[in-house]
Amino acid sequence: MSTAPSQQIKKETPEMATAFAPNAADQPEASTAPAASAAEPAHPASDPREPRTNPLIAKVGEWSRNLLAPLAGIAIFLALWAALAPTVQTSLGALPGPIAVAEQGVALFDEWQAANELEAQFYADQETRNAAAVAAGNAAGVTDFTYSGPPTFLDQIVTSLKTVALGFLLATLAAVPIGLVCGLSPVVNAAINPLVQIMKPVSPLAWLPIVTMVISAVVTSADPMLAKSFIISALVVMLCSLWPTLINTAVGTASIDKDLLNVGRVLKLGWFAKLTKLVLPSSLPYIFTGMRLSLGVGWMVLIAAEMLSQNPGLGKFVWDEFQNGSSQSLARIMFAVVVIGFIGFGLDRLMMALEALVSRNRGV
Prior knowledge:
globular; MetI-like_sf; transmembrane; single chain; 12 helices; 364 residues; MetI-like; transport
């Protein structure tokens, strides 16, 4: 009676083992491979008579491949752009090619220089009038006006960078703490997750009227410290860009090794020491990945927000040129698009450098 079950077990065990073993057809080849290799003569690891590659030449070749391939891709793109642009006719004429777009970039820089000269001349004339009024004993004639010329293209770039910086900072300050709490508490994660999934795909164009009405009701000062349009654009950037940081922070915190947390309990670390010594260093790669994604989303969202909120920036510049409808407007818009892309690339590289700097100095 006792031998029957054991025979059944012995009969079934090989069948179960083969379910996770390599294919039976492959096993004879694997078993004969060592014999075949043993029969073959041993080859030396390297032939001393072969010429050895110069490390400097190998490095130069690697740099050439890494540099020439992108340059070739850009050159092909510019050639196709220059060849196909004249065939596309718009209401403002033919689509401008790379040379026409570059010429408008130079013209925008010249306009910035001319505006700076006008501003300097304005303040110089004001200083001259004030000096003459003081010399004549007319203290009431002293004025202190601020130059109010239209913003140039470079001024609008600076404004856009300030706006996205404020929105990104607010998004990071809100997303990282919430993500840490969600990663450490499954209950909080379950409570917040539906809200995140619902609000994450909302377009900035949907947030803009809500934020505009709220800010208009809250900011009632005639001369606020920050312009309403600036605050509106920054808050729209925040609402649309905080989700990648929040989600990645929660995932990184939840994936911390449980043994590491148990060590913290054994050492009786307080919540602040546990957070700074264990949780944050382990979650930094996830947090910085989320921050890079958030910064990219924020820069992309900003252009649409500035178009509709009329906050002086690249978005407003593109919209004004579109409304202008001059013969140079399309080339100026395309130059602005190129600048927007380069700035976005630069911001991403900046976040990568910051991540490498912080990761180099972190330790668990």
